[in-house]
Amino acid sequence: MKNYQTLFLYLFLILSSFACSSSRSYYPTAKYSEGDLRNINDEDILKAFEAEPQLQLPAKIAWYNMSYDSLVFKLQMPENKQILENYLLPKSLIEGIDPLFPSQYQSYYSQPIDFKAIRLLAARAKCDLVVLVSSRFGEQQEWNIWSTFNLLILPAFFTPHIDSEYRYSAEVFVFDVRNAFMYTHLKYSDTKKSTKLTASQAPKNSKSVNENMINEATAYFKTELQKLFASNQIN
Question: Is this prediction's pTM over 0.70?
Fold first, then answer.
């Protein structure tokens, strides 16, 4: 009897490993913060209401990646008569982490960043705008009817027993470095599904879907940012 229990436990562990083998997700490493909320007073609120757009083009843009995927790199504007320079603010100075080692900060819990410190660093780099970019990707896997064949173990490598749902969301905030006026807050979200994936296909498919979602978000944000720079809101 114990042998059968051991066998079933062994099968369960193997099948469970297939269920989560291609799970791929990441979350923002940082969240917006104005410092200690206890120190915010009526004067701070009044200043926020009184802030007005004051940017004169051409401008220098400071970018900050609140996550770690490639969206912030794809969004950087081509240098032209309106955009003099794109400067990527280092995460090591703000969050104390190295983006070359993402496994260190894949977490459900985002650390608050001091927005005033980001503005100060942007000012020291002689930038006029600061753009915060935040993104998140998640994958939810379920087994379909093909998973019944996995009890034989070997078919688990070949049967299309995985159905996956992918979710991607991203946000872009554009602020004036001098007075923190927010020119725009853009949001993007998307959901896609893939069915009948094998254990070997699932990881590759997840990576491919994630990259496609990033590209689609890039196209949307770039269009909206170009509209912003062409409007009277920023001139």
Answer: yes
